[in-house]
Amino acid sequence: MGQRIQGRRTPDRESLYRYSTPGARLPWPAGGCQLVSLRGQAVLSSSKHISKGRAYHFLRPWLGRGLLTSDGQLWHTRRKLLTPAFHFRILDQFSEHLQEHASRLVDDLAAAARDAGKGGAGLDVAPIISRLTLRAIMVTAMGKVDFRTNADSASQESEHSYFEAIHRVGAAVVERGVQPWLWVDPIFHLTAFYRRFRSDLETLHGFTSKIISERKSDMRECEEGDQDSAGKKKRTLRPFLDVLLAAQGEGADLSDRDIREEVDTFMFEGHDTTSVALGWALELLGRHAAVQDALAEELRAAGSDWSAVSRLPFLDRVLKECLRLRPSVPFISRYTDHDIVLSDGKVVPADAVVNILIYDLHRHPDHFPDPERFDPDRFLPEKEQARHPFAYVPFSAGPRNCIGKRFAVMELKLLLAAVIRSFHVRSGMPSREHDMFTLDLVLRPSTGVFLHLTPR
Fold this sequence. Notes:
alpha+beta; CATH 1.10.630.10; 5-stranded mixed beta sheet; 3-stranded antiparallel beta sheet; 49% helix; 9% strand; disordered N terminus
């Protein structure tokens, strides 16, 4: 979205692009209006305006009323329930599993790079990364320890179907958003487009329902081992899915469908956004050899101590700059239920959807001079402190910021470090950034992320 994230234009999308500049006001056929903004603090920081924009309603057939799409008291209750799943001690437990997956990623990339050879555009790393991040989520957040090793052929086929369905459903949600006649459910339900959509939803829901069912069975088998010598249940820190299942078992108002909706949400947000972010980070480093070499040197000096990776200052700055230029989620929106008076006296009216273009916000020259230049030192401590706190929001901000931010950052650092320690990376992508993206829920590559990898 925005002036630069336009992907490949089609006639159906032209009306959307006319309103992609900051300050534009777009009438909404169902009432109210949509506003485009590069100043999100008044909305994002508010504890009142925490409802998502109407476009998120198109996600509900897939994600139901999970944490991403729910509002009001339901959102507050679920957020409070799930927050302990992202406790720093839980994340420390995850790091060991993520290190295993980082090593697996290096092995998979090395094998694929040998097969791809040295010619042409290079190796498309996107499907390899996506498969790896999905398995990492399965092990860490869903408790599927059998995914530590290579999945069998049936599991691989199931994964492939899941990937394809996620891509099609994401594209379908965006396409529906830019074709107003499809906003009306009875009309949408008459289309062949909808029949494909329904089929993909069955694939996605079947995949996550199977995960939940298997984890329930695993937990029942482990119940005796979770008791102390007096027969009392031990207090333990639980990963994401276990938190939900335990709450259900303790009488919380959580149906099987409620749990599936939260799992669908986290499976999407926890693997798709992370895989996109890692692919773009490697592509950017593949264009900037000096930065890549400096990062490799920092990693070499840190040695084999994986626990030190999260504290490496240059790695931290590199990742932040990658997420500035290529935010996984390029836009977000919020709904206003009453007028908001901005600091300059302008009024955001009630019953409006405020679309915040993160991709463009991260390129605002007032906050990031020469914004297209790749410069990790923008995130030196003194520069971060001097910058507006809402100028950089790759994980959103305020009460509805990403609950899994710390998990995502830890995973990205471990995986990025593993790849740069092992390979020299060179981009095989076109020089024009506009040609790389497709219009989607995430900043998805239009054809893949092609890299040349040579061992260090």
